[in-house]
Amino acid sequence: GPFQVFRQTVQLLGGFLPARSLDKLYNFAECAGLQLILGLNALHRNPDNSWNSSSSLSLLKYSAGKKYNISWELGNEPNAYRGMAGRSVNSSQLGTDYSVLRTLLQSVRYYQRAQLYGPNAGRPRKNAIVLLDTFMKNAGSVVDAVTWQHYYMDGRVRKVEDFLKTRLLDTLSEQINKVFKVVHSHAPGKKVWLGGVGPAWAAGTNNLSDTYAAGFLWLNTLGMAAAQGVDVVLRHSLFDYGYTHLVDQHFNPLPDYWLSLVFKRLVGPRVLAVRVAGLQRKPRPGRVIRDKLRIYAHCTSSSNHNYVKGSITIYIINLHRSRKKIKLAGTLRNKTVHQYLFQPYGADGLHAKYIQLNGQKLVMLDDGAFPELSPVALRAGRTVVMPPMSIGFYVIKNINAYACRR
């Protein structure tokens, strides 16, 4: 779930979080069924540059007294502190600080088993990779999951087409590989989380990051991260930070929110391999054919009671400017398929702030409830047809897939 907004809120308060604000924040997370992860201020430093944990300890004691079930982080993008805050914390110091925080958590009885995540490194370029490597050496054992952040492009990029470049979509794959290589050289099997992701840094791109076009990047991020073994993706952000938020200032969902909601309802954590015949054309020498049709498959979410265990959800991104026909082969062939097809709503095309599902514009109902997100049933054996620039989720019902029954 997209919790990054909470981290942002706390850091803006400069290390002093009024009790009332924490109460509101925690109650909001509880009501929404979200797990709250609180980012503590890492730049609260002693004269010898070691982390000053005094205000964090009082926050821990307050939260423990209220029995708040919270997970913890320390700082945000430590490799960028010099540029952002005019001071730096080297990676071995950061490792020590995390060890201090773990000891602190163990000293407060309610948080002895609390989860701790970090170091929340920035994009894995050279300095961030070096930081991650030293951090893992010194503190890899004290964190429950290793986190880093990925932003696809500079916020100054201005064209909607920039979201559709397959080269851009594939940068994440290379970065995941880099991070896994470092993490697993120190701690094989350690969970890796994408601790913050957005279409652009510098607070996103006005009138682009909050449009239908950004959805291709978001859904591809979820598919690619899952396929490569990333356990959790945290979205940056839920509300009112730059232009990468999921809801507007009136709390109306933007296109990425609707995609996230349907993803949560239909896509379970177990990833399946996808074999596609007919896409592997030989490129002319010197020319790379980048995949404009992206297909991912998972077991259907077990919390969705509309579908029995053993169902499969396939989700497809069609970046072509023409429609594409997809035939389901083998055991998938003669099964009823539920289609959830997304396209932009209205005349703005890729710039649309609204999205339609199976031809219906998605908006909240008057009483603040979600509309019915109903599928269209495709009869068994029918070819799946994806319009140009569309995103579709397809649940193959009653297939009783062996990998999804367990």
Your description of this structure?
By secondary structure, the chain is of the alpha/beta class. Helix content is 30%, strand content 22%. The strands form 3 sheets. Strands 7, 8, 9, 11, 12, 13, 14 and 16 form an 8-stranded antiparallel beta sheet that branches. Mean pLDDT is 86; it is low at 1-15. InterPro entries: GH, Glyco_hydro_79. One of its GO terms (cellular component) is extracellular space. GO terms for molecular function: hydrolase activity, acting on glycosyl bonds. Pfam families: Glyco_hydro_79n.
Level-2 CATH architecture of the largest domain: Alpha-Beta Barrel
- Can you tell me the CATH class of the largest domain? Alpha Beta
Number of H- or I-type helical stretches: 10
Superfamily (CATH H level) name of the largest domain: Glycosidases
β-strand number: 16
Strand fraction = 15-25%
> Termini, distance in Å?
24 Å
Approximate shape = globular
- Describe the sheet with the most strands: 8 strands, antiparallel
The unreliable regions are 1-15
Order of helices and strands: HHEHEHHEHEHEHEHEEEEEEEEEEH
Instruction: Tell me the count of domains.
Output: 2
CATH domain fold name of the largest domain: TIM Barrel
Average pLDDT: 86
Q: What is the helix fraction of residues, given as a range?
A: 25-40%
Specify the structural class. alpha/beta
Radius of gyration, CA atoms, in whole angstroms: 22 Å
